[in-house]
Amino acid sequence: MKNPHHITIECPSDQSKCRIDKFITDHLSESNYSRSRIKALIQDGNLLIDDTVIDDPSASVKPGSCYILTIPAVIDDTPQAEDIQLDILFEDADLIVINKPAGLVVHPAPGSPNGTLVNALLYHCGEGLTGIGGVARPGIVHRLDKETSGVMVAAKSQHAHIGLSELFASHTINRKYEALCWGVPSAMQATIDAPLGRHMIDRKKQTIRENGRHAITHYSVLKLFPPFGCRIACTLETGRTHQIRVHLTSIGHSIIGDSIYGRPQRVAQMPDKISRQALAAIRAFDRQALHASELGFVHPVTHEHMDFSAPFPEDMENLQTLIENAVYERGHTYI
């Protein structure tokens, strides 16, 4: 792995008004960095001005300022095929649909160089990968967090990769998730329309920001476990990083087991509603209780409409049973 390096860019005091991504790209024109690459680097929080992160590529350049652009470390190793068991829901010459288990990282990264879904697909598909961008590799068009389970699709051919990418970009794809959450919402169904962007302090987190990217989540309550929990279904109009997790937390009903965005404090003050032992067992759930239950799209090659679903995984079924039993034992009913 190459080490990251930093580029210092002085902005002339007489610089005319323009977007920061254009200014940086023009300044680095001899370094062969495309504007899309610069834009992605900025969105990932790699641009500083006076120790402040600039993550909006459309922000106006500030004359007389000094910018520092970080070029992250590059992983030199090509992912290797690994024999990792997959739960395959569908496969043809152009794409593959799987039920991803919790704990499986989708793509190799500095913290997870192997043992990922990409490594597994390289092994399983083998010569069936006909080449994406001139390389025999699976086309990852969307991702699930490491600890989120459920339905995912990946492309095996260039044609399918382009088609699926367009479907996700235009949001003409059906994605339904189910989650077990803390608390009982006041509205049984609603829409959360709140823009998301990187947290200004913790760059690994997302947060609701006025200048963030457009994000809409529709939710409906499937089952109540009063007074401290519920099962919620979410459908997405947009697909931002951690969208469901942040949106549900924003309305006071974070996902059980979410170590980053979870807020279970509200039930800690209700020992009369649930036994301390049951509460401790629920809090011990070791991942966010979020599952991608449905995925529907038009096949980019055959143009057939396809729908796939995956039932609650065993650990989430057990968690729901634990919650139901805890409610029942305390003399409450659930619907």
Q: Keywords for this structure?
A:
22% helix; Pseudouridine synthase; alpha+beta; 10-stranded mixed beta sheet; 4-stranded antiparallel beta sheet
What does this protein structure show overall?
By secondary structure, the protein is an alpha+beta fold. The protein has helices spanning 20-27, 35-43, 117-125, 158-169, 243-250, 265-268, 276-283, 314-329; strands at 5-10, 47-49, 52-53, 66-71, 88-91, 95-100, 139-140, 149-155, 174-182, 189-193, 196-198, 206-208, 216-225, 229-236, 290-298, 305-309. Strands 5, 6, 7, 8, 9, 10, 13, 14, 15 and 16 form a ten-stranded mixed β-sheet that branches. A hairpin with a 2-residue loop joins strand 2 and strand 3 (52-53). The longest helix is centred in the C-terminal third of the chain and has 16 residues, at 314-329. The protein is globular and about 70 Å long.
Specify the structural class: alpha+beta
Helical segment tally?
8
The best one-word shape is globular
Q: What fraction, in percent, of the residue positions are helical?
A: 10-25%
Short description:
This protein has 335 residues and is an alpha+beta fold. The chain has helices at residues 20-27, 35-43, 117-125, 158-169, 243-250, 265-268, 276-283, 314-329, and strands at 5-10, 47-49, 52-53, 66-71, 88-91, 95-100, 139-140, 149-155, 174-182, 189-193, 196-198, 206-208, 216-225, 229-236, 290-298, 305-309.
